[in-house]
Amino acid sequence: MNNDRQPAVAGLFYPANPAALRRQVESLMAVAEPQPQPLMDVKALVAPHAGYPYSGPVAACAYAQLAPIAARIRRVVLFGPAHRYPFRGIAYPDADRLLTPLGPVEVDREALDAVSSLPQVHRLDAAFEGEHCLEVQLPFLQVLLDDFRVAPFVVGGADPQDVAQLMARLWGGPETLILVSSDLSHYLDYDTATRVDRRTTRAIEHLEPESLDHHAACGATPLCGLLLEARRRGLRAHTLDLRNSGDTAGPRDRVVGYGAYAFA
What we know:
Helix content: 25-40%
Shape: globular
Strand content: 15-25%
Number of helices: 8
Radius of gyration: 17 Å
């Protein structure tokens, strides 16, 4: 018997009907802005995690970078911030598969075993109950990739160095993609959010985690962990898209910022 984790936000953040979900993802990918020169050596992505009408167009710009390398990706190491359950450290689920309307995604249990000895890493199912930040990324991966597994981590109260250490252990080679799920500023007016998110983007482009906090990005801790590891490995950050909910599907008095970035 498989130990499956059921989806928590199907029908809320994205369609629960499989055909409708696939159509929506494919439609978002069809209008994603292409880069003038595709990045052939992408190692990590940052993508937002709101409902698809809001952040889906920006997330699609991140996932468009997978087109040249999709055939080689066999493992996605996925990080996102805890929204619902407070805890210390970094959590992984006791599950063999993560389900979406498009079917199951296999969990890379070997990868989880390889990091379970780290003191900041814990098996904690409660961190995944009702949590959307990782789940909304899965349908994009299912549509774009073939045979892959995920190592899913929800980040609670932790230091960016803790995340970087975990990333380093699972960094792997060309078969492994690092994916950080994070939105940017929250509930500012449109003009203020635009200024704040541009400042955040400059910090990301310059690999400056010391310039970011949770007012800049809800996933600041995993994002800063990625910046630390990218800096250590000599990667460059590329901004792919920067918008907010006022640009996509919402009013402009209280917006949420969304950015898409690639590291190569």
